[in-house]
Specification:
- It is a single chain.
- By secondary structure, the chain is an alpha+beta fold.
- The protein is 23% helix and 24% strand.
- It is built from four helices and eight strands, in the order H-H-H-E-E-E-E-E-E-E-H-E.
- The protein has helices at residues 3-9, 39-55, 58-64, 156-169, and strands spanning 71-73, 83-89, 95-108, 112-114, 134-135, 137-144, 149-155, 191-192.
- The chain has a five-stranded antiparallel β-sheet with strand order 1-2-3-6-7. A three-stranded mixed β-sheet has the order 5-4-8, with helices on one face.
- The N and C termini lie far apart (48 Å).
- The structure holds the ligand O=CN(O)C[C@@H](CC1CCCC1)C(=O)N1NCCC[C@H]1C(=O)Nc1ccccn1 and nickel (II) ion (NI).
- Residues 121-123, 164, 168 line the site of nickel (II) ion.
Length: 194
């Protein structure tokens, strides 16, 4: 591998690598990743997962000025590819920490859910108040960082996080879902996620 590629490969992701609103990749549909993934795609997805972990480490977040996050999608680092990473523990103490290629929602509940405090985004440097209606339960098929084809059933906070990330892969931002006429009123029958 030539030096330039090695040099690019050795850099950790910081906030400087995260594109903000107005950058075209945030509004593009991404292309599927060809599997098995190239060394470069594998390295990138590993770095995306590492960024999320680093962002939740107080010392590293302080040292590198990272905004704590629980998920990251490739368009947020200017890469129009169907890749995302998550690292968080849900209210039941279940841990989610992995990178995914070509995640897709294969089924979902009619029932809706929402995070009571609304949502934010590392690519959005402003508060956008409002309820973001999500599917309360989803089933996701994807290939993990380790190359395993998985089918995951998600509900609650985890379902919201995965939907937020998969939205990015389709050029959708969280505020696209907010009801402009009545942003703070949850849709009929929607449940709040604790
Ligand atoms: O596309 C991905 N993103 O834009 C990062 C987002 C993803 C979440 C937003 C709502 C559901 C998924 C993200 O993580 N945030 N949004 C902006 C600031 C806060 C931050 C967050 O929620 N941090 C956090 C850290 C530790 C524990 C709990 N929360
Ligand atoms: Ni986001």
């Amino acid at each position: 591998m030539e030096f330039a590629q090695l040099e690019r490969m050795s850099l950790m992701i910081t906030m400087d690598d995260i594109v903000r609103e107005g950058h075209e990749t945030l509004r593009q549909r991404t292309e599927n990743v060809t599997l098995p993934p190239s060394d470069e795609d594998q390295y990138t997805l590993k770095e995306m997962l590492q960024f999320i972990k680093n962002s939740q480490d107080e010392e590293l977040a302080e040292q590198y000025d990272l905004r704590p996050g629980v998920g990251l999608a490739a368009p947020q680092i200017g890469l129009s590819k169907r890749m995302m990473a998550v690292h968080f523990t849900d209210a039941n103490g279940r841990e989610y920490s992995n990178g995914y290629y070509n995640p897709r929602i294969v089924s979902h509940s009619v029932e809706q859910a929402y995070l009571p405090g609304g949502e934010g985004c590392l690519s959005v440097d402003r508060d956008v108040p409002g309820i973001v209606p999500r599917h309360a339960r989803i089933t996701v098929k994807a290939t993990t960082l380790d190359g395993e084809d998985v089918k995951i059933r998600l509900k609650g906070y985890a379902a919201c996080v995965f939907q937020h990330e998969i939205d990015h892969l389709n050029g959708v931002m969280f505020y696209d879902h907010i009801n402009q006429d009545d942003p703070m009123t949850p849709p009929e029958g929607a449940v709040s996620v604790d």
